[in-house]
Design a protein that fits this description.
Number of helices: 7
Shape: globular
Protein name: Probable lipoprotein
Structural class: alpha+beta
Region (Disordered): 190-209
Signal peptide: 1-22
Organism: Tenacibaculum jejuense
Strand content: 5-15%
Keywords: Lipoprotein, Signal
Number of strands: 5
Largest sheet: 3 strands, antiparallel
Strand order of the largest sheet: 2-3-4
Distance between the termini: 89 Å
Radius of gyration: 28 Å
């Protein structure tokens, strides 16, 4: 009887071990994607049309009158371009211990006499942001270090450009003369150019098909 109990116990242990091993060996489907809910900031078609029509009425005629042609309306970036840019900024930010909070999409325009891009047309630049005093401030991940976050504002100022969109105070004082920025503007041509942490080079429409 004792022998039967020992054998039974041994078989039970073996069975439990076998089942556990079988569970551990169940292959994990690495291709399974997590279902994502509709983001809160997506809009309806009526909401989209409302914005498009308001732009057509209040911005487009003024720009066409000033320029003599319709300015760029669309900036196309491939998914790969955006993903690579975000991955690069994340990598630099992580290496330097900087919080990467998002991206500012900023309007600019190619000079008409430019020998790059699409001369005479508006384009979009994207600039990464970090949290500074509770605000999302544009920063340069390539120029920043572990000990200092270099903001887009201070780099632009060193070239004589007054960036006024980081705070309400900056914007209110946008027309106040800044002697240092003016001096930097005078010396811009002598100052060496630097690669920035901002992105650009999109496909714009118009004028391109």
């Amino acid at each position: 009887m004792k022998t039967i109990r020992v054998v039974t116990l041994a078989l039970l242990v073996s069975a439990v071990t076998f089942i556990a091993c079988q569970k551990d060996e169940v292959p994990v489907n690495s291709n399974t994607e997590t279902q994502v809910e509709r983001p809160w900031n997506m809009i309806s078609y009526k909401g989209m049309i409302e914005r498009l029509e308001d732009y057509d009425k209040t911005r487009k005629p003024i720009l066409e009158q000033a320029l003599g042609y319709e300015d760029a309306r669309i900036n196309f970036y491939s998914i790969e371009t955006l993903e690579n840019y975000i991955a690069y900024v994340k990598q630099l930010s992580k290496e330097k211990g900087i919080e990467f909070t998002g991206i500012n999409f900023v309007s600019g325009a190619y000079p008409k006499d430019a020998n790059y891009g699409t001369p005479g047309y508006q384009h979009i630049m994207f600039m990464p942001t970090t949290n500074i005093s509770g605000k999302n401030i544009g920063f340069d991940p390539s120029l920043s270090t572990e000990n200092k976050v270099v903001t887009i504002k201070e780099v632009l100022a060193s070239y004589g450009y007054n960036w006024v969109y980081d705070s309400e105070e900056d914007y209110k004082n946008r027309n106040v003369l800044n002697k240092q920025i003016n001096a930097n503007l005078s010396n811009r041509e002598k100052k060496a150019d630097l690669d920035s942490g901002a992105g650009n080079l999109s496909h714009i429409k118009p004028p391109n098909p």
